[in-house]
Every structure is written in C-alpha cells, then in structure tokens.
Design brief:
heterodimer; A: mainly alpha; Cytochrome Bc1 Complex, Chain D, domain 2; two-stranded antiparallel ribbon; 16 helices; B: mainly beta; 3 helices; globular
C-alpha cells in the first residue's frame, strides 16, 4: 500500500506496462471475526491472489512431480484431513529418511505478520518457505533445475503458468508464488467457538468453563501465547521455550539466530484444529491433547531459556484438577473447524 | 484513536506527493518521540536481555527478557495553560524495535511540559477495539475487566541460587469478581523548545518499577500479578517516577 502511494507522486514518471495478459483477481475469503478483530492478511505486492494462480498452486501442491523420483507431493506431509499436517510423528521423505520435526498444519498463514515460517522460523515468507521442501534431501530430495525441467516438459503446466503469470517459461519463483497463493486461501475460521463469538451457537457449560481456565492467570494461563477471543489466530506466532526438556537437544530458534538465549524456542502453534493435527509439539512427542494438558499441568521441565510465563515451573506446572483438564480439552476442541478440512476447494484436484 | 506508527506513514505520503516548489517559512515541524530504556542510567537494549545482571532495590539480582508497554494521548503543554493534543497510542516493544512515534505539524513554540497516559484511560480502553493490538495478543482478559495490557515486563530473578520467573503485567485492577478499577496513570515530564524538526528522547528507568515508593519484593510479587489487586496498585504507584525527559535534538 505504502509503495503504491509513493510511486504516484506528481504523475509524471509513471511506469506504463505493456498490454499483457491479466489473470483474474481472487480476493481472500476473510472470516468476519478476522476482518473485525485483527490486521489485514499479508499478501506480497508482487504476488497478488488470482483464480489461475491459486488453481495452479493447488495442482502443484498435490502433484508429486516436484519430488526427485516423482513419488511425493507437499500433500503427503500436509494432508487436508489433518488440517494440512501429517498424522505421523516424523514424516518420511522420498528416500525413506525420517526427519526430527513433526510436520506443521497449514492454515491462516497469511496472518503470520512476521512471516517467519517453520518451527524455528528459519524461512521468511511463504514463497521463500516453499523453496525448501523440494530440495530438502530428507523430504522431496529434488533439485530445482530438475523440477523446472519436469514441469516445462509436461503437457499442461506451461499453459497453466501462462494463465497464472502471463509466461509459459517456468522458474522456481513462479512455482513458489503459485503454491503460496494456494496456501493463503487455506483459511480456517468457522469452528464452534467462532460461531459462539458470532452469536450463532451456544457452547456447552464445560466448553465455556474450559475457555475461562484458558484465560485465567491462576489456572491454565494459556492466552499470553495462544490468542484470545479478540485474536482469532489463536497463536502469537512468537518463539518460546514452553518447558518440554531439561536438556535441550534440538535448539530450535537458537540455531537460526545464533543466540544461546533462543535455544529451545519454537513457534507457538495455533490451537485451532487440534482435533485433526495430532501428534503435537515440534517433535510430535505428545500423541493426545490429554498429554499436552498434562505437560502444562504437571510435566514442565526447567532449563535456562524457559519462558517466564511457564510460571509454575517450581511445582512442575499449573496443577489443574481432572475436571479442569476435561473442560480445557473441551474448549480446545471447540476450535476445530470441520468445514475447513472438508472444503472442496482445498482438496486434491489431480 | 490511531496508532502513532501508522500515522508516520500518512505523513510520509503527504510529503512525497507535494509537487510545488514553494518554500513558505515553516511555522511547524515534526517531532519523533524516542523511547529509550535504562537501568539506573545504564542503557538497556535487547542485547542486555536474558542475562541476570541487574540488581533491584530489594537487592535481588534479576534479568529482563521482555518489555512491552502502551502509551497514549501525548500532550504538549504551554505556559499559558493551553496544550497541543497528539491523539493516538503507541505499543513500545523492544523486541521489534517499535520504540518511537513520529508526529508532524507541531507548532514551533516553547512547551513547558510533556504529558501522556501510561496505558489507556477508561474511554480508550475498549475491549477488542484496536486491530493491531489484538493482532499482537495485547488483550487483557475480560474476567479482569477486559481492554488491554498496559505493560508486560518479564524475566528471571535469583532467589539465592535458584532462578525464578517474574511477569510484571499491568492493566485494569480487579477489586473483586466483577468489580474493576481503572489503573492507568498520567506521566508528566519536562518540556522543551520546539524550533526545528526534533527528536525527543523519553527515558524509562526500568529500576524505578521496583523501587519508588514501594521496594518491590519479587518473592512476594512475581507471577500471577494480573488478578492481584495489591500488586496492580503498587505498579501504578511505582510507575509515577519511571519516565523523564532525555536528550532533545
């Protein structure tokens, strides 16, 4: 927006673009609570959302053509029925290699205002992120040169790139732009809790009690990192050490910044769609929501970089009763959005 | 009410769009309010975060790992009792380098004092109203009166050899369930003479939050301070002396 205004000064040296092919704009479908409560989504000025771009990105996301041996697509580790993460603790790459991080759900990514992606924030921007899995040896293990060649010699892709970007010469930047456009359409904002906030549904007393526990500094105290009724993202997208380990092996953000004070910090995940996204945490160590709640209630491990908000560290956690745990779980589950995972626009088009 | 950071953008655009070359004698100029932070005079930036290297008035070694706070409604006061109101708010956050507000068209004059609100006053502290503050999860729970945090100051302190956390979070005070008390306060610091585009430093001495008039004992008040009425009122009282005018350039 700012850039656009700055260029308009005096109207003398306007850049006149040749009359080229223009794809059809496709504005994001922004849920009412997002529009009302938080800042606009981040859409890079050089990658506007278009009908053709999103359709191409969706096709690429589901197409194993991007992988080294043509056997793996993004969707293998980011499946719609799992809110675009992987039900396995560690995903298996094309060579059978297993990583040490749990896959991450993909939704509401356009509202990650800092644009730091991955558990440790090592990629900037969704376009930048999409470069990684294709060439990662333990994931799709391809080279971009090779991936480009496969797409260029395909019967459909050159045409689809022309429709999306006005050129049939395919390069990695256009591939990642298309994928990012598709990813930005993956918006989840219609859970039971959203409907409760919109006044179209009444939650159970247990769910409401669970929300109070989530918001109560003397009980769960989860809201400082995982959003609140005025932040429909249900994450701060900031990096914290939430007390998983006394001895930290995967240093997370610390490896990216080189600052030991960041060791053991990972990005707070959104707590939307937990019903579909097990297992939990950066290494998928918890198979159930109960295990996650037990962790915060009595399983905290102290380490030098633990977040001060893990305040009950001296007693191992916030010490919830069984009833409180059940209520908290009921609230967390009320943020699951089955309309999102079943949205026909998000399924495999191939 | 607008975010003063966004205001900066508006000003830039107007400047860039002006095409005439007339140069009338300026009667107003811009001011950048720079918020800087120190511990009893030693400069504090994020480089100093997470290290137990400060000692509070109670004698406890401590660190800072987060410092964010909200200020609003800056006023520039003149000797004749009139004042210039700078409507807006600023969430100062050391970790994102959001530490200044830029305003333009401030009349050249002598201002005898600068005042501002720490936090939001009751009229401005509307629950969920500010989309940038919601996006920053800056909200204050409804069960504690709603609206927004005024400050989040966090870190660790040493209780002899054991490191313990503190979270000095300030906002509306809850007297009892359902009964709330506004907890913002007004700051007044020295004035300055405005004759050119200026940068005005406003200094926060973090140590004052733990010192004056109440010698803060972190063993008594460390975490879960949001619903703690007494802690909220002590923060308010100690906040009175934390700001002062720094350099004017």
């Amino acid at each position: 927006m700012v850039v656009g205004f700055l260029f308009s000064s005096c109207g003398e040296n306007e850049i006149v673009l040749p009359n080229t092919y223009e794809p059809t704009p496709l504005p994001l479908k922004i849920p009412p609570l997002f529009a009302e409560k938080i800042l606009d989504p981040v859409i890079p000025f050089n990658n506007p959302q278009t009908v053709e771009g999103v359709a191409l990105g969706r096709k690429l996301f589901y197409d194993p053509i991007l992988s080294g041996d043509g056997s793996q697509s993004c969707s293998d580790c980011h499946a719609p029925e799992n809110a675009f993460t992987d039900a396995d603790r560690f995903s298996v790459g094309i060579d059978g290699d297993i990583g040490n991080r749990n896959s991450m759900p993909i939704f509401n990514q356009a509202w990650n205002y800092d644009e730091n992606f991955f558990w440790d924030g090592r990629s900037f921007g969704l376009e930048g992120q999409a470069l990684e899995p294709v060439k990662n040896p333990i994931e799709m293990h391809n080279t971009w040169v090779n991936a480009m060649a496969s797409l260029q010699s395909h019967t459909d892709y050159p045409d689809l790139f022309f429709q999306a970007f006005g050129t049939s010469t395919i390069d990695s930047s256009l591939v990642t732009k298309a994928i990012a456009q598709f990813e930005r359409t993956l918006i989840s904002g219609n859970s039971r809790f959203d409907k409760h906030l919109l006044g179209t549904l009444t939650l159970t007393p247990q769910e409401l009690n669970g929300f109070d526990i989530f918001m109560d500094e003397t009980k769960g105290d989860c809201f400082h990192c995982h959003g609140n009724a005025n932040n429909p993202l249900w994450t701060d997208n900031i990096f914290h050490n939430n007390g998983l380990d006394a001895v930290i092996t995967d240093i997370g953000l610390g490896a990216v910044t080189g600052n030991p004070a960041d060791n053991g910090k990972f990005k707070s995940p959104s707590i939307r769609n937990l019903q579909f996204t097990a297992p939990y945490m950066h290494d998928g160590r918890f198979a159930t929501i109960d295990e996650v709640i037990n962790h915060y209630s009595e399983g905290l491990q102290n380490s030098p970089t633990i977040d001060p908000l893990m305040k009950a560290i001296a007693t191992g956690g916030v010490q919830l009763t069984n009833d409180e745990k059940e209520a908290l779980k009921a609230f967390l589950l009320s943020l699951s959005d089955s309309e999102f995972i079943n949205n026909p626009n998000f399924q495999n088009p191939n | 009410m607008k975010n003063l950071k966004l205001f900066l953008i508006t000003i830039t655009i107007i400047t860039m769009n002006s095409c005439d070359n007339d140069d009338p004698v300026a009667t107003t100029g811009s001011i950048r309010f720079d918020f800087t932070h120190n511990w009893d005079g030693d400069n504090v930036t994020t480089d100093d975060f997470n290290i137990i290297q400060f000692t509070n008035a109670n004698g406890d070694p401590m660190s800072v790992s987060k410092l964010r706070y909200l200020i609003s409604n800056i006023f520039l006061h003149k000797a004749d009792g009139s004042s210039i109101a700078i409507d807006g708010y600023l969430l100062v956050d050391l970790s994102t380098q959001s530490t200044f507000a830029f305003v333009s068209n401030i009349p050249f004059d002598t201002y005898t004092s600068i005042s501002f609100t720490f936090g939001f006053n009751e009229a401005d502290n509307t629950d969920g109203f500010y989309s940038d503050l919601n996006a920053a999860s800056w909200n204050w729970p409804e069960m504690l009166g709603g609206g927004y945090h005024f400050m989040q100051l966090e870190g660790k302190y040493l209780d002899t050899t054991v490191e313990k956390p503190y979270a000095y979070h300030m906002g509306t005070a809850r007297v009892s369930p359902g009964v709330f008390e506004a907890n913002h306060f007004e700051i007044s610091i020295d004035g300055f003479t405005h004759a050119n585009d200026a940068v005005i430093e406003i200094k926060m001495n973090i140590a004052e939050w733990f010192k004056n008039p109440y010698t803060w004992d972190l063993e008594v008040y460390n975490t879960t301070l949001m619903p703690n009425y007494d802690a909220q009122i002590l923060m308010n009282q100690n906040g009175d002396s934390v700001f002062s005018l720094g350099e004017v350039n």
